[in-house]
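Deliverable D2.4 — example input (structure tokens):
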């Protein structure tokens, strides 16, 4: 009978067989190796950057390749919150640029693992009936285990008494990254996320979409404000670079370091625009209402800081950007997912604002830390105040926009002759 099949039919059968084998691989093996591969993929890149940086600095005249590899590994660990000690000074600030890259890579590997274990556990009909399924928790736990073990081994090998990266912080950050990014990727790749989301009420799904849109809009605004402030005083940044007397190679590395800190800068800008502001050393404060600064390091990104002393009369109006961002996000989502129910419009706007405020507050807490000795051990946004202001600003803006959009959509429905009492 097989001889009667056309070549194209046999190719389709072979492809289906390979796909079937791919989704029937052992869950424990696939998930654990997926976590290890996610860690090693970014580690190898950091090690390569360490070696390249070693040659760019002095053409390899000082130190050894193993020293360059250790620097690359410490940079990888720093992106996992390890902190590092440099000449007796403890640095705890986390460069969030590498952390975001690690999260994206973990997400991608999580998707692949999810696709490979999709056929484990109940089928989609049983999932829809609410049957208990441990596929995603089991795969996520093993994925996390593989990643964490790899990270701890790297910390043990590359750490020294002089550098002292914190293994406990590496453990915590690795677990969080794997549970959030890796677990989410596994849920999406396996199809479980789509099934579970379909079971949620429509208002909950639209709230999730509003939170995502609001965070993107707000971080875009913060990045834009920082870019404007930096470019407005770009001459100062260029002057600082010239005073550092860096060669071509070290200058490239220095600019690369600043690029890695751009997410931190955006979160500093977020705290500034919400009102609480941030510190650039002990006994300093930068807010739209007042700026108190002392001597600051010769770091070009700090050229974006406003001048010391009283602020211009227009800067307090920047506080309106928080509610405006919430209004824009709610309008964008509610145009795609309209509702005629007052409670749905108000609740999802308010809930999205509150959740987004909490996320921004937590992110602000991660953006700062010690960046030097003495007074530079206190640098970062005022996290708790940012959280409360974010909840208030985004929540109020979301509530206003959700209610207003519901009124508008009910009005349009009434004009079209549709019933608005049913909330359809």
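Example output (designed residues):
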């Amino acid at each position: 009978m097989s001889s009667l099949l056309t070549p194209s039919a046999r190719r389709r059968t072979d492809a289906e067989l390979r796909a079937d084998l791919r989704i029937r691989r052992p869950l424990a093996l696939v998930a654990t190796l997926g976590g290890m591969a996610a860690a090693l993929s970014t580690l190898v890149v950091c090690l390569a950057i360490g070696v390249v940086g070693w040659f760019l600095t002095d053409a390899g005249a000082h130190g050894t390749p193993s020293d360059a590899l250790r620097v690359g590994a410490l940079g990888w660990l720093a992106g996992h919150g390890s902190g590092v000690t440099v000449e007796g000074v403890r640095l705890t600030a986390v460069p969030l640029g590498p952390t975001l890259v690690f999260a994206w890579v973990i997400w991608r590997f999580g998707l692949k693992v999810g696709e490979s274990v999709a056929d484990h556990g109940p089928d989609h009909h049983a999932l829809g009936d609410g049957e208990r399924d441990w596929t995603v928790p089991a795969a996520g736990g093993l994925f996390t285990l593989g990643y964490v073990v790899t990270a701890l081994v790297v910390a043990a090998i590359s750490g020294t008494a002089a550098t002292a990266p914190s293994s406990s912080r590496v453990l915590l950050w690795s677990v969080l990254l794997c549970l959030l990014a890796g677990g989410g990727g596994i849920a999406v790749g396996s199809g479980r996320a789509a099934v579970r989301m379909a079971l949620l009420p429509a208002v909950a799904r639209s709230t999730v979409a509003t939170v995502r849109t609001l965070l993107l809009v707000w971080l875009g605004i913060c990045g834009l404000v920082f870019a404007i402030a930096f470019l407005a005083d770009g001459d100062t940044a260029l002057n600082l670079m010239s005073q550092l007397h860096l060669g071509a190679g070290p200058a490239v590395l220095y600019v690369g370091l600043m690029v890695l800190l751009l997410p931190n800068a955006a979160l500093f800008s977020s705290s500034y625009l919400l009102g609480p502001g941030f510190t650039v050393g002990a006994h300093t404060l930068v807010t739209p209402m007042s700026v108190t600064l002392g001597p600051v390091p010769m770091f070009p990104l700090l050229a974006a800081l406003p001048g010391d002393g009283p602020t211009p009369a227009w800067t307090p109006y920047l506080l309106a950007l928080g509610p405006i961002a919430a209004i824009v996000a709610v309008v964008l989502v509610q145009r795609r997912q309209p509702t005629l129910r007052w409670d749905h419009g108000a609740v999802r706007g308010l809930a999205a604002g509150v959740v987004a405020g909490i996320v921004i507050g937590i992110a602000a807490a991660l953006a700062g830390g010690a960046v030097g000795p003495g007074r530079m051990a206190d640098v970062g946004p005022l996290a708790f105040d940012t959280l409360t202001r974010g909840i208030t600003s985004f929540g109020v803006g979301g509530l206003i926009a959700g209610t207003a959009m519901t009124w508008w959509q009910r009005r349009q429905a009434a004009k079209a002759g549709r019933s608005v009492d049913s909330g359809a």
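Residues 383-415 form the longest helix (33 residues).
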